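Thread: quick sanity check before group meeting

JM: Hey all, I'm pulling together slides for Thursday and realized we never actually wrote out the predicted structure for the chain we discussed last week. Dropping the sequence here so it's in one place. If anyone has concerns about the input, flag it before I start.
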Amino acid sequence: MSDCYRAACAAVVEAFVAAYPAFLKSRLESMAPGTEVHEGLRQGVQWLEGELSQWAAQTASEQHRGPLQIFQTAVAFPTAALEAAGVAPPERDASAIQALPGDLYGLAPASSRDIGGDAWRAHIEWGIAKARLIAEVVPAADAPPGDASSRPKGMPALVAVTMSQADRASIHLVASGRGLPVRHWRNPGAIASGLEGETPRWAVVDIDHAAADEAVRLLSAAGVKVAVYGPDPDDIAMARWMALGAATVVPHDRLVAVLESWLPLQA
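JM (edit): ok, ran it. Output follows.
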């Protein structure tokens, strides 16, 4: 892991942990003023610091959760305190329930901007550092650039958004057996540009990819059938990705099986 990426991760840990108490107190004061949740906040910030510290010590490919997802999970402790105090959960809209079903009181931030300016800036810098790290190991495409006229006509394509060379090899193996071309679009700009020339039929998006959220949004909005994959995604993660537009969310070891079921035997 590069020193730049390590420093970006460390900055996220510091900013997110520092912001947690004030962010949650503000949410709690507006929701349940006077309710004693001190112990829930103490447990939450202690858990958050431990989880983020472990996350920051991992390489980019080992980081199976993002820092915002870890922060969102940390609200489980004040949530439990509110439940124990008998506070009635507020009504939440269907999209919020689908994205974060365990967030009964709506305490979790939707984005790092909600947490605070320092946390948001640290999160953005981390995303930039990860994108640069990915760019060093993943080529922009497998074929020379060209306009839509240079692409195969009438042939459905598969898009892969992943930083893993091993996953790219597996994806190519299945697609080549079906006679299908694979496009490797590594960032939102490449995705938007690619969609101007063609609309692929399928896409697979690696949860670990720095641009995974935007990739799912762009591709699903264009009518592409998107599979998001990662190591053992839990119910909250699955709901979140489905809310972004994914057709399915599967464990990493199910990726090949999903491709084999989706892609036709003959293109």
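AS: nice. The chain has a mean pLDDT of 84. The chain is about 55% helix and 10% strand.
JM: adding both to the slides.
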